[in-house]
C-alpha cells in the first residue's frame, strides 16, 4: 500500500514560479513534479536523501509492447 503524499503550501515570487513552470513544461513535467524532482536532486547532491524515500512514480504513457512482449520498441 502506498503511503499518502504530504501536502505543502509553497509561496513563491511570481517570476520564480513562471520560470519554474516554463522549465517544467520544457521537460514535460507538471510544476509540482518539477519542484519534487529538483528537491530530490538537491538532497542527493548534498548527501541528505533519506534511504527510505520512495522513488518517484513513472509518469506518462507506458512503453509499447514489442513482438516478444518485453516492452521493447517493435521497429
UniProtKB/TrEMBL annotation:
Residues 44-75 are annotated as: Disordered. One of its GO terms (biological process) is regulation of DNA-templated transcription. This is Toxin-antitoxin system HicB family antitoxin.
Amino acid at each position: 500500500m502506498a503511503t499518502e503524499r504530504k501536502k505543502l503550501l509553497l509561496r513563491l515570487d511570481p517570476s520564480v514560479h513562471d520560470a519554474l513552470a516554463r522549465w517544467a513544461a520544457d521537460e514535460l513535467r507538471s510544476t509540482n513534479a518539477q519542484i519534487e524532482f529538483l528537491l530530490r536532486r538537491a538532497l542527493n547532491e548534498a548527501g541528505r536523501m533519506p534511504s527510505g524515500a520512495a522513488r518517484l512514480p513513472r509518469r506518462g504513457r507506458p512503453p509499447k509492447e514489442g513482438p516478444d512482449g518485453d516492452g521493447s520498441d517493435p521497429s
